[in-house]
Amino acid sequence: MGHLNLPVSKRNPRQWKLLDIVSAAFFGLVLLFFLMVFTPLGDSMAASGRQTLLLSTSDPKQRHRLVALIEQGQHNQVIEACPADYVDHMPCEDPRRNSQLSREMNFYRERHCPLPDEMPLCLIPPPQGYKIPVQWPESLHKIWHSNIPHNKIADRKGHQGWMKVQGTHFIFPGGGTMFSEGAASYIEKLRQYIPISGGTLRTALDMGCGVASFGGSLLSEGILTVSFAPRDSHKAQIQFALERGVPAFVLMLGTLRLPFPAFSFDFIHCSRCLIPFTAYNATYFIEVDRLLRPGGYLVISGPPVQWPKQDKEWADLQAVARTLCYELIAVDRNTAIWKKPVGDSCLPNQNEFGLELCGESDDPSYAWHFKLRRCVTRTSSGKGEYAVGTSPKWPERLTKAPSRTLVMKNGIDLFEADSKRWARRVAYYKNTLNLKLGTQAIRNIMDMNAFFGGFAAALVSDPMWVMNVVPARKSSTLGVIYDRGLIGVYHDW
What we know:
It is built from 14 helices and 15 strands. By secondary structure, the protein is α/β, with parallel strands linked by helices. The chain has three domains: 45-118, no CATH class; 138-392, 3-Layer(aba) Sandwich (Rossmann fold), CATH 3.40.50; 395-493, Rossmann fold, CATH 3.40.50. The longest helix is centred in the N-terminal third of the chain and has 26 residues, at 13-38.
């Protein structure tokens, strides 16, 4: 049987390779289509694209439209998480931006916000391994290490009792640079000179607070402390304070008034806060004086009080205090305690610092992005009812309408109506909405439009604290909140 001779193919090997490539690309596209449609990969890639849009500033008009949709609640897509390196992001607290600014009067360490087009539109992610925080009151003494995984303070300040790493937790022995044996023993020393107990003192300000062990320890005395510290090389120290359940926020005494009304605090404390109180014609001491109630107490512990090589600074500090008629109650080693006078200022016409009283038109309670004044707040503008020792003790002051309610027409009637309204609302929140108010599950709350602080007052018997925020463009009712023995801050949303 003969063989059939077939013609030899004329296609060369190169042509076959090209067909292979085309076929592989086709099947690859088909496979990618199925992956995009039927697996999470498609969602992930879409999310990445949306995140790029949210972070992008290349098209301001598109960004503004997106912001408007979000603010109106009409943005129906999920807002993505920011990149992982945003975990420590704080608005207006960018160390890279701030490092380029002037260091005069610590201007560079104040809040400096980027332009709206430069702000990220994404959700700040929690640290990897984040856990539900330890509940109060246990949280005062220990928190999860994974929630704020920064060891720098523990490494540098552990020998002073600030905080230490212990297994999966940070623990807080209660120490500080000036009270390494613990805040409790330090407070016992102050108790010899200051009425810590009994309700005479209720609101306190702790400047340069570290991890806020001092303010945390005062809670057991019924004293509610606003603690603040700047963001620095230790990251944000106040993150540890908030995780512990202690009131605190990032703040710097630099070129602006602190965001509190005049005569807010019964007690102001500085433990090695390193604020140069007598610099710039005693501008910083004057700001402290603005915030302290007549008859209130000022404690400065650490430099320059009887500190080596700071004799002149210590002498100047005493001279400023004398000029403002502060009574020096005690100097206990490196701790000095003064009491602010009650009544009209005794400021003389001539003094070595050139200090003068502020004009009658100055509103000492206006303090939102307001430049520091180099003049002394008139004590007489505090009136007798603001003075420590003459105003009602805690808790009676919570329910008594203070004179500052008169900042509004029919203020006293509004105060009483607001208190009753919030008592009803909080009862509704607890009984109907099941918000877990009054339980250990909720420790700190922000009231974004606090008015007279009625919400916080209705929760005062619960194991929590409220940061009352009064918008800067609304009526200045924050003074009423402090008169009641509550705490708060000005802000502009």
